[in-house]
Specification:
Strands 1-4-5 form a three-stranded mixed β-sheet. It has a three-stranded antiparallel β-sheet with strand order 6-8-7, with no helix packed on it. Strands 2-3 form a two-stranded antiparallel ribbon. It is of the alpha+beta class and 132 residues long. Helices cover 24% and strands 20% of the residues. The chain has one domain.
Amino acid sequence: MPGFDKNRYYDLLTMLKTVVGSDDAKYTRQTEDGETINYLPSHKLSVPVDLNTVRSNGTVNTGDSVVSELHLDIAKDKSYLLKNELAVLALVAANKWQRPLCFNSTYELEKPGPDQVYPAGRPGRQVGPRGS
């Protein structure tokens, strides 16, 4: 899409609010059935990480290295996201690391990268900002 660099990471919350949630025709497409749908023009998304917040609330473990920005790479061959996938991305973006996120099903979180989910009993706890 014009105006979006395929090699750049875009802020997830901004993209969800201003692109996916927009009624602007430049962010929509017509399906073969004539339905108008919104789309996400980038496969590279990011979520800023506040180091002090994730350390103080237990989102990351003591001693973990922490990145300043979580990168989410959606598979290049994926041409759409389902509502459940968008819902998980919206939770991750809107949470702003204020508390650890736990999911009973981690299927949606495994798509951007399984290293962003830490098994914590039955639910998986998101720990995405850890560095390598």
